[in-house]
Each structure stands twice: as C-alpha cells, then as structure tokens.
C-alpha cells in the first residue's frame, strides 16, 4: 500500500464538479470551514465558471487560496491528471453511471482517495467489480454515497450497534422521515437508475460472485413489509434505496455488528393517506422512467444545475430513528439535521473529504463504506458541524 503523501501532491482535496448545485454548496462549506493550511482546488469543465467561483470564495474572504483545475469526463487524460494532483478527490459529477467510471479508475490507479455522492446501486456494484482490486493494490479508498445517501443511515446503524452488546445477534430497523426538494442532478440520476432495473440486478449478481464469502457470520437486509410501527408511531414503508446495501456492507466488514446482523430500512409516514400517496407517486415516477418519451418529459422538468432555493432549504429537515435489539437489550437512537439533499449533503461530503485527508483512520483500501473508512471520526466531525447523533427515549 502506497498512500499519497502531502509532499507528492499539490492539493489535499480536489473538488470536481464544483460549479454544479451541490458542488457549489460543498465549495462554500469547505471555504468557510477549511482548517488552516488546507491546500485545495475546485475542478470542472469550464475555466470561466471555476474562476468566477474562486473569485466569489476568495473575494468574500471565505478562502485564502483556492486552486483551479480544468478537466472533462470526456477527456480521460484530464481525469488522470486530476487524480495525480490530489490526495483526496471528491466528485459531484453525476449521474455517475453516465460520467463516473473513468475517474474511479484513475484514482484506483494513482492510489488517490476517491469519494462521491452516488446513490446509484448499479454504479457502485460495477465499480466494486472493476476497480476494487486495483484500489487495494495502490491503497486508494473508494468511498461512494457520502451524502444523505447513505451517511445518516450507515453511520446511524453503526452508532446504534455501538450501544448494543457485543458478540450476539443484532437487529436494527431504520425509519426515515424527511422534508425537502430535489435538484436537477438528483432527479436525473434517479430517473436514469429507475430505467435500468434489469442491469442493476445483473450488476448486483455479478458483485455477489466476486465478493468473498462471509465465513461464520451473517449480515442481511431483508425488504420487510409495510406495517404500522408502534415503536416509532408511524406507518413504515420498505425503502429500497442504496442505504440498506451500504449498511450491510459495513456489517460484513466490521466484527462489531456481531455474528448475525439484520437491517431493515423504512420510510416512516405519520398518516396513512400520505403513506398511500407516497407509494403511488413513487410508483408513477418509476413506471414513467421505463418509457423513453415519458422519461424525457420528466427529465425536462428539472435542469442540471437547478435546485431548491436557500429559503426552501432552510425549511427542510430529516430525522432517521433507529430501533436496535440484541442480547436482551433494546435501544432507540436518532440521526437528524437540516436540509437533507443539499445543505447537509454538502456538509457530510466536505467533512468526509476532510476526514479522509486528515483524520487518524483505520487502515483500509478498496471500495469501503463511510462507517468502515471513517466511522467514529466522521461521527465526531458531523456532530461538531451540527448533525445530531443521539440515544433517544423509547416510546
Ligand atoms: N448522495 C446524496 O444524498 C446526493 C444528494 C444530492 C445530489 N446527489 C448526486 O450528486 C450529483 C450532482 O448533483 P447536482 O444537483 O449538483 O447536479 P448538477 O447541478 O447537474 O451538477 C453536475 C456537475 O457535473 C458537471 N459535469 C457535467 N458534465 C460534465 C463533464 N462532461 N465534465 C466535467 N463535469 C461535468 C457539471 O458541470 P457544469 O457546472 O460545468 O455544468 C456540474 O458541475 C448527482 O448525481 C446527484 O444524484 C446525491
């Protein structure tokens, strides 16, 4: 393993896609919270837009110095150069299935730590099959889903497990409540993934063939069934996002999750009509995504770069309640914060990049989850940044 040193690389962190919606919020967060001496750069395909962003950050006195690097996903040489400039490369350039692979490959080859905001299961599975081995050889940590997908759920399950006895079978249920709006980039990524059901399943099967078997332990994420969950006072609807997959990967990697770990992931809805309406709306978007004309019409509703206003984001929030059980104990925990998709995602993304760059972390390499790569150090950072992780009272 040959981790890049500060001497060999001009930048600690390079933020690619810095001129997009979440990219700009992440750049603003880094500028406002960068530790002294952070060497970082914004990267993207338009030098003009990057220079304007830099002027705004530096001009507002929010950053002493920020580099500017030009790169385009259609130019693999520019991506290789980008990977060679950074110890940690954080990219918001999505949909990742469309734009992401070359940069993962470049980072795996260069031994550069890579993080993204992908909530696209097919992309994450393909990257495991194609680039995990190379990243392990070079020491690169490839950490996907470093935003609302999947940090509150991955670190929330990790935090819940830490409250339960060791060495016994454990079950954790996560109940997500949130209010917020989509950006154009998120909507495009979701539509793209919805339209690729069979390819997503094929990538998951291929991954299972490549993953080493878990010997003597079990970690599963059954879908669960819709039910009234008295323990959180809400209707619970199974939520088939990437989050339960990420939680199970953490459980597979970390002995602390015990010999037999089960995680179920739900949307929690207080009133039954909202639960029925939510399922119908999700089903309608999923069905429309299967038909190219309907998909084109839907994707035209929100353009890349569009996203909720600061006022709208200020009213948005999320709360994930966890109920953990094992060894005769039951524990209730919560992870909560503000606008999930953008303000808090930018915070989680930037803090993950800083954690990979500067924290004293366990030795890991290859495709790793946020809990495995950063665990307690990232929880500590997010708490300081205003995201709640707490043991809650039961109902
Ligand atoms: N994990 C989560 O919870 C979470 C939350 C929010 C968003 N996301 C994901 O994050 C991603 C970005 O979302 P967003 O709303 O910020 O999208 P966006 O505003 O459309 O930004 C996309 C970025 O990609 C850049 N880009 C596009 N084509 C490129 C190319 N050929 N070469 C280089 N850069 C290129 C764009 O550059 P220009 O600025 O030059 O156009 C822009 O910076 C999406 O995949 C979304 O699903 C995830």
TrEMBL record:
Entry GO CC: plasma membrane
A Pfam match: Sacchrp_dh_NADP
InterPro entries for this protein: NAD(P)-bd_dom_sf, Saccharopine_DH-like_oxidrdct, Sacchrp_dh_NADP-bd
GO annotation terms (biological process): glycolipid biosynthetic process
Ranges of residues in domain Saccharopine dehydrogenase NADP binding: 13-130
Protein name in UniProt: Saccharopine dehydrogenase
């Amino acid at each position: 393993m040959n981790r890049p040193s500060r001497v060999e690389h001009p930048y600690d962190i390079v933020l690619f896609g810095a001129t997009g919606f979440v990219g700009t919020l992440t750049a603003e967060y880094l500028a406002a919270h960068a530790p002294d001496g952070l060497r970082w750069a914004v990267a993207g395909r338009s030098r003009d837009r990057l220079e304007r962003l830099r002027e705004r950050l530096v001009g507002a006195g929010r950053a002493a110095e920020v580099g500017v690097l030009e790169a385009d996903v259609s130019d693999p040489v520019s991506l290789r150069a980008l990977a060679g400039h950074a110890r940690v490369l954080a990219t918001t350039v999505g949909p990742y299935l469309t734009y992401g692979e070359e940069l993962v490959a470049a980072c795996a080859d260069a031994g550069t730590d890579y993080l993204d905001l992908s909530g696209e299961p097919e992309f994450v599975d393909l990257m495991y099959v194609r680039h995990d081995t190379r990243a392990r050889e070079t020491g690169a940590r490839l950490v996907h889903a470093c935003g609302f997908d999947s940090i509150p759920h991955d670190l929330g399950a990790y935090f819940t497990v830490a409250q339960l006895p060791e060495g016994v079978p454990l079950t954790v249920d996560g109940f997500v409540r949130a209010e917020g709006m989509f950006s154009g980039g998120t909507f495009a990524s979701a539509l793209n993934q919805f339209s690729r059901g069979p390819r997503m399943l094929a990538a998951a099967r291929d991954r299972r063939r490549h993953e080493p078997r878990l010997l003597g332990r079990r970690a599963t994420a059954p879908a669960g069934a819709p039910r009234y969950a008295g323990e959180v006072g809400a209707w619970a609807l199974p939520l088939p996002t990437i989050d339960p997959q990420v939680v199970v990967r953490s459980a597979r990697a970390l002995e602390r999750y015990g010999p037999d770990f089960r995680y179920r992931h739900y949307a929690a809805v207080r009133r039954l009509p909202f639960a029925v309406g939510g399922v119908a709306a999700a089903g309608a978007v999923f069905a429309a995504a299967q038909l190219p004309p309907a998909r084109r019409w839907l994707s035209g509703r929100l353009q890349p770069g569009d996203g909720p206003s600061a006022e709208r984001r200020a009213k948005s929030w999320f709360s994930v309640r966890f109920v953990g059980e094992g060894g005769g104990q039951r524990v209730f925990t919560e992870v909560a914060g503000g606008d999930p998709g953008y303000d808090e995602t930018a915070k989680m993304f930037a803090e993950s990049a800083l954690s990979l760059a500067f924290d004293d972390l366990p030795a890991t390499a290859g495709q790793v989850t946020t809990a495995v790569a950063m665990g307690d150090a990232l929880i500590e950072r997010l708490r300081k940044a205003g995201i709640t992780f707490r043991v809650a009272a039961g109902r």
